[in-house]
Amino acid sequence: MRSRRQFLFDSYLGLGALALADLLAADALSAATVDAVNPLAPRPQHHPAKAKSCIFLFMEGGVSQMDLFEYKPALIKYAGKQMPKAERTEGELATFSAAPNRIIPPYWGFKQHGQSGRWMSDLLPNLATCVDDLAFIHGVKVDNNNHGPAVYHTLTGSQFPGSASIGAWVVYGLGSENKDLPGFIVMGDRRGATIGGAGVWGSGFLPAAFQGTLFRNGSTPIVDLNRRPGITESEQRKELDLLRWMNERHIADRTGTSELEARIASFELAFRMQSQAPELVDLSGESEATKKLYGLDDPVTEPFGRQCLLARRMVERGVRFVKLLHGAGPDRWDDHGAIQERLPVHCQEVDKPVAGLLKDLKSRGLLDETLVVWASEMGRTPFDNNLTTDKPGRDHNQYGLVVWMAGGGVKAGATVGETDDFSVRAAGEVIPIRDVHATLLHLLGLDQNRLTVLHAGRYKRLTDIGGRVLTEAIA
Amino acid sequence: MFERPHRDTLRKGLVAAGFLLIAPNCIPAPAAPFDRVSSILQQQCSSCHSDRSKTSGFSVSSVESVIAGGNKYGKAITEGHPEQSVLVRLLRGELQPRMPMGKALPAADLAVIEDWIRQLPPSTNTRETEWRWPFEKPVKRDPPSVKNAAWVRNPIDAFILAKLEANGLAPAPRASKRTLARRVYLDLVGMPPTPEEMNEFLRDESQNAFEKLVDKLLADKRYGERWGRHWLDLARYGETSGLEGDGAIGNVWRYRDWVIQAFNSNMPYDRFIIQQIAGGDEHSKTRNNYVPDVQGYIPTAFLRLAPWDRSNLVAAEVRANYLAEITSATASVFLGLTLGCARCHDHKYDPIPQKDFYRFQAFFNAVQAGPPVTVPYKDKALAAKAEEQIKYYEHLLKEGPEKKELDAFEQELLKKLKAGKAQEAQGKEYTKADLRLELKLPKQRIFTAAEQEKHADLLAAANRTGDPEEQAALDAYEEELMVRLKAEYAKGIIDPAERFEALGVEDVRREAAAKYSGKSIFTLEEKNRHAELTGKLDILRRRLQRWKPEVVAVTNVAGPPTGPDIAPTRILIRGNYNQPGEAVEPGFPSAITGNFEPAVLETDRYRQFPTRGRRMTLAKWIASPDNPLTARVMVNRIWQYHFGAGIVRTSSDFGKNGERPTHPELLDWLAVHFVESGWDIKAMHKLILLSNTYQQASENPLLKGPAGKADEDNKLLSRFPRRRLEAEAIRDSILWVSGRLNTEMGGPSVFPPLPADLADFARYGRTGGLMWEPNPKEDDARRRSIYIFQRRSLPLPMMAAFDATVFSESCERRSTTTTPLQALTMMNGDLANEESVHLANRIVREVGTDPAAQVSRAFELVLSREPEPDEAAQFKKSGLSLESLCKVLLSSNEFVYLE
Predict the structure, then answer these.
(1) Taking 80 as the threshold, does the pLDDT of residue B427 lie above it?
(2) Residue B658 half-sphere exposure toward CB, CA atoms < 13 A
């Protein structure tokens, strides 16, 4: 007993026989046979896949696709005119497009870039240099035209709170490679909370061990990471030694102790995390060139640049899933008005950092094993949304989301789907967001049909009724 | 939904492979001759129901297809029972539409079909035959006889012991008195006994000492706070709507207090059900002007607790989602039925057709989820306190320091705004905005008072209605006035810049909060300061609001003659609000009643409230002694909270995908007993707690070593199951032992401080309100955890680390996960560290400075026992401060595990 426990302390690797409490589906279909002592122990992929980790860039508020990624000359031609009737739209969007409205042209130029000759807006000059690494998915549809439910739908697969977030599913499926750091890390926008709150990185009906850990800015990325002022490491070690002595004494005459052992081990992991996490967020070892690449030298790009650089450092250290949130409160990408003034600011804040991340990952040979995803919760309308202001802006469009992916297993330069001439909705196949989820899982070596958990009478999965793996976007 | 291979499919595979040569349920075709039936059906039905046309998915081409039935009613034949068979009922006109369409089948033909059905052997469909148990009424069988009859204290023990003996096992010895006392305190009131309480119990050597303790704790007010929390998990209790803005669900804390009070007063469970589903849905008791008891509205908050998307403009979608949510929640919480799986299609595992989901939902179709309703406080002390608080906050909002500070700042900003606007306007052409400003000036310089008034009326009308005609009238009038405005300004007699004097504080507020206007007259600092000062007042306003005697609840639509009648409930095809299908009447699940008959609705005797009675009908059916599920589901839940796992471990899913009961006869015995006792929850606790099963030790010496494999998961209850305490019990216990728990009960929720750097992040943008608030009083932060404000977007990190998030869906069982974040919160978090200091201070106060006495007291307070000599020695040797020793004890497994 003693030596086995010793091994657990030292390695924090689980031993096969310790099945986590019956909370996890003991079902042949569930991917994960999860270990009680270390629920984050790495688990094999369902099928061989290049991507080992994922960086998910989420732009909150609804990114205007026709100002950034979709070049639509019709919008210039019809500028100021009433939008011709948008077919096959339901709900709010049908109402919007039927009401008197006027088309807003993109106020920025578009040029073709790279080998692929993809059109990109002048608002993203740095990202434009990376287009040959990206695969674009157009005409993605979410189930709701409002931020809250749409954010949930994009990030948890269901528009209602309570489901597990993508990162939680991935860590449930694959565990994590770094035993001293959380497997799923979230970095929020320092200007405020996300609209969905903690639920968008929550574990929902999966055990809490798979929930995202929120990293904050500064040297204390995790709540309660730092020792209390005035307590030295050796004092803390003494406390922990006594605690361990107590807990081991407690276990000695007990049986069925895997949970108790897990709790002992968790204190040791926490102790190590105290030194690992600050090392992770300490950027002093990064070269000036690298920092510049991410825009850390400019106050506009610094906040997101820092998060992108941290994301690279995380996947480098084996963190499985990193989610970055950009845009909060009034600084969201929710440009109902004054789009001419606002959109360039959002773009500037992320353009260089994101391009820097892609380039840095590539030059370090990490892009092949990292999946980078860009998404928002919705697209926007081609027409003004009639706010009583003289500064036009665009309304929500649940049919017009653009997602791009890059890195491990992604077919660089690919384009999946397209929207109509006005960028209202898909011209051909509508791509529901669950297809994006299915593809994301597939690229990480997970099969949406095997990654399930029994909850409230159903085998739940991220893709709900099942998504199509977008093979056109896969190398 | 994802479908896994059905057991039937597997079985068919095995049969095909020749593995199952003789299996009783594989007898193939029915024996009765189908020929005559077939010719009747061919003649009468095949024009619509052939394999080719297959209207409604039904075909009469073969025995199998006739039995299988169509899309609408499912299986058409109940073997042996023509009167229950859908086909016959359609032919008789008992189900609509009567078949064959537009005519009646000759009686002789009908008789042939009925004869044929009567002779059919019982169904071979495993789905039907296997999955009946939870739908049949439980039967109270005599407890089984056992070898070791001396161990049986009450019938529970007989059922448990019989199964242990059948497996060659014996129960664990009785737990020590000390262990038992700690167990039952944590279990019933959620915190450990004080050393004095422990000693009192240990000294009591009477036979019924434990029973006396149980009685004492069941009468303890803390019991309602502990067990009420379990119910709040089920009720998906949250105090904000989640999603965009995460606004408050108005004063829903009164539901929380109602639940606590219901447990403390031992409200019979049937009443507890009826009040939550059908509060306020009662009938008139007098012929005229009957006023229902408004207190009944509070418990109906149960139907308002789901997350709510207030930004969605598509009302039909919001309504469909809302009704679906309360349907699913009601069925899973009270009936253990996963009815929600049938929202979009027939249930894939359980016998719940999609139609049943909407028939169940139809009971809620009169529901109106309107604004909070006024329900006066019943409790006099609370009413007095509320009144005092309301006065206090009204005063602060009118002339408190926060208000004065904001007023002064807004005046300052107003000056800046006037100057800024004047500057912006320089050299620009006059617009309607200028006209409106001029018209707002207190002293008119150009226009007459009549013109001013006319303009104000037109403007208000256009804004209110959004009607193009009103707008056109306004436009025309403004055009007319514009001409004079320009002319007068051009004369140079009056100063046009003075029009900006019409700007007021509302304009300041608009400018400060403008999100989409781009560049602003105010600096970011000014905007932030304005938001901060407004936020302070906002908090006062919220506190005021929380004391108002209002509560969110459901009411009924008025119905004719004062309003439209209840909308019909339609099946939504694939659950899509945009694809209504067949209309259905309120009805109970067919798996239980065996039919699709509409429920007989209780209607208002005096017809004062024509829309009343639907929810009451459902509630009474659920709370009926005849309901096969209700009592089973509740006793199983009570069992689960005592033992950590239910007799059915999936306590909200009694369906096929759920786990089978480990002790089905015991479950049924308890269920019947529960109903017989008058749905007495406290009596059920007592029965369970006084059983020898509950009083076992958590280790069974017979199961040491390899023998431990015999009942590894403890499904047979060969020992008391050890389990980790929930977040609330851990936090409450820490505060309790440190002596700092604020035991005040009830009232608006409190806000324990967030970790400093998270508090900043919790600001919902610079123009939004604060997501987390300071408390009115410092010790509010130390109230019991059930009183912590349940903000869906922001669970307290310490609570979330121990698996207590703010639930958005009904949670039937907490997960117990172990993560390093829990360890961090104990090592470095405010609560553990601060309370360790207070605990240390308490110990010094109580026993002085002798280190050995201190350690001894610490063990007694935290672990309810004296330290063993080796422990005392180890603590002494460690050289740690008393605070550190306290923290070690509070972090120990022994403290956070109940056994």
Answers:
(1) no
(2) 25
**Residue B31 tokens, joined:** 């024996």
Taking an 8 Å cut-off on Cβ atoms, the answer to whether B2 and A459 are in contact is yes
Cβ neighbours of residue B145 closer than 8 Å, sequence gap 6 or more: B158, B162
Whether the CB-CB separation of B824 and B798 falls below 8 Å is answered with no
Q: Are B92 and B77 in contact (CB under 8 A)?
A: no
Mark out the alpha helices in B120-243 (DSSP H runs).
Answer: 126-130, 155-166, 177-189, 195-203, 209-219, 222-234
B887–A146 C-beta distance less than 8 A: no
Cα distance between the two ends of chain B: 39
Facing A456 at nearest CB: one of B4, B338, B755: B338
By Cβ distance, the residue of A220, A235, A242 closest to B757 is A220
Residue B460 zone, left/alpha/beta (φ > 0; ψ -120 to 50; rest):
alpha
Structural domains in chain A plus CATH codes:
1-38+239-281 (no CATH), 44-219+289-473 (3.40.720.10)
* Closest by Cα among A461, A405, A409, A466 to A433: A466
Q: What is the mean pLDDT of residues B186-198?
A: 97
- The H or E element that residue A322 is part of is strand A321-326
Extract the tokens encoding A136.
């674009």
Q: What is the pLDDT of residues A429-453, one digit of tens each?
A: 899 999 999 999 999 999 998 898 8
CB contacts of B713 in chain A (<8 Å) are 22
For CA atoms B400, B403, B407, B413, the dihedral sign is positive
Q: How far apart are CA B444 and CA B452, in angstroms?
A: 8
By the 8 A CB rule, do B201 and B193 touch?
yes
Q: What span, in angstroms and rounded, lies between the C-alpha atoms of B883 and A435?
A: 55
User: Are A260 and B874 in contact (CB < 8 Å)?
Assistant: no
Put simply, whether A161 touches B (Cβ < 8 Å) is yes
Dmax over CA atoms of chain B, in Å, equals 113
Helix-, strand-, coil-residue percentages of chain A, each rounded to 5: 35, 15, 45
A98 at the B interface (CB within 8 A)? no
Q: Where are the domains of chain B?
A: 28-123, 268-376+554-622, 389-445+494-548, 830-898
Per 3-state DSSP, what percentage of chain B is helix, strand, and coil (rounded to 5)?
Answer: 55, 5, 40
C-alpha atoms less than 13 angstroms from C-alpha of B807 in its C-beta half-sphere: 21
List phi, psi (to 5°) of B590.
Answer: -65, -25
User: What CA dihedral angle connects A329, A331, A332 and A334, to 10 degrees?
Assistant: 110
Is A111 part of the contact surface with chain B (CB cutoff 8 Å)? no
Mark yes or no for CB contact B797/A223 under 8 Å: yes
Residue entry with tokens 């996490």: A277
B520 in Cβ contact with B424 (< 8 Å): no
- Alpha-carbon distance of A455 to A163, in angstroms, equals 10
User: Where does the pLDDT of residue A80 fall: very low under 50, low under 70, confident under 90, or very high at 90 and above?
Assistant: confident
Query: What backbone phi and psi angles, to 5 degrees, belong to A57?
Result: -100, 115
- Asked whether the bond before B97 is cis by omega within 30 degrees of 0, the reply is yes
CB atoms within 10 A of CB B513: 16
What pTM value is reported for the model? 0.79
Average pLDDT of chain A to the nearest whole number: 86
Token pair listed for A59: 């732009």
Pair B703, A251: CB distance under 8 Å: no
Average pLDDT across chain B, whole number: 86
Could you give the CA distance from residue A367 to residue A351 in angstroms, rounded to a whole number?
Answer: 18
Paired residues of B373 in beta bridges: B551
Please enumerate in sequence order all residues whose Cβ is within 8 A of that of A310, keeping only pairs 6 or more positions apart, or say none.
Answer: A187, A215, A280, A281, A283
Q: Is the pLDDT of residue B892 over 50?
A: yes
DSSP state of A403: E
